[in-house]
Design a protein that fits this description.
It contains eight helices and eight strands. By secondary structure, the protein is an alpha/beta fold.
């Protein structure tokens, strides 16, 4: 188990040990990691409904309108989009880059839920949402994931108070999941990597 902020380092570590990997669920993140590491990886053909719709042509057009802009891209995006990036990184890494980059304008290719924290980190910057193309010839939609938007504090509180929509996991599966999470956290600690919301100590 990995997050996008540690994926390359984990896979590089496994690759140096001669490990072959089955990567799931996101094929674009897997492709990015594979190209960075050269690892032997079988990619599951899943993808994020938002990141897969970013189009290199649309971002290039926006970059022509704002030549001083930096392009920030999440690695779950297609390779053609990543190729246009000034910074490729996890949500936390992109927010940090927004604050540190000198560019006055930032073109951001990830779910627009990042904009609130990014604007707080870089209040003097202009943030532009990377264009997202749909299936139709003229269909353009915003970079907003409808599935992530279904989660919120009010709904979580409702579940805790009423028990409705509670999800039950077989304890044996939960134990395996915790083991995977703990292995990732231990690796991050050994590498001195702080994951989102966690310090490396």
């Amino acid at each position: 188990m990995v997050t996008s902020s540690i994926a390359v380092k984990v896979v590089q570590h496994l690759h140096t040990q001669g490990q072959k990997l089955i990567w799931a669920p996101d094929r674009f993140l897997g492709d990015y990691v594979q190209r960075k590491t050269g690892a032997d990886m079988l990619l599951w053909q899943g993808s994020c409904v938002i990141h897969e719709r970013f189009k290199a042509e649309g971002i290039a057009d926006l970059k022509r309108q704002y030549p001083d802009a930096a392009v920030l891209v999440h690695p779950e995006s297609p390779a053609s989009v990543i190729a246009l990036a000034d910074v490729v990184g996890s949500t936390t890494q992109l927010i940090r880059a927004a604050a540190e980059l000198p560019n006055p304008v930032l073109i951001v290719a990830t779910d627009n839920g990042i904009f609130y924290k990014m604007q707080r980190a870089a209040p003097d910057k202009t943030l532009l949402e990377a264009p997202v193309g749909g299936h139709g010839a003229t269909c353009i939609s915003c970079a907003h994931c409808p599935w992530m938007a279904m989660n919120g504090l009010k709904k979580l509180l409702h579940v805790l108070e009423t028990g409705e929509n509670e999800i039950h996991i077989d304890p044996a599966i939960g134990t395996q999941a915790i083991h995977s999470i703990n292995r990732m956290l231990a690796f991050a600690g050994q590498q001195g990597i702080a994951l989102a919301g966690q310090s490396p100590d």
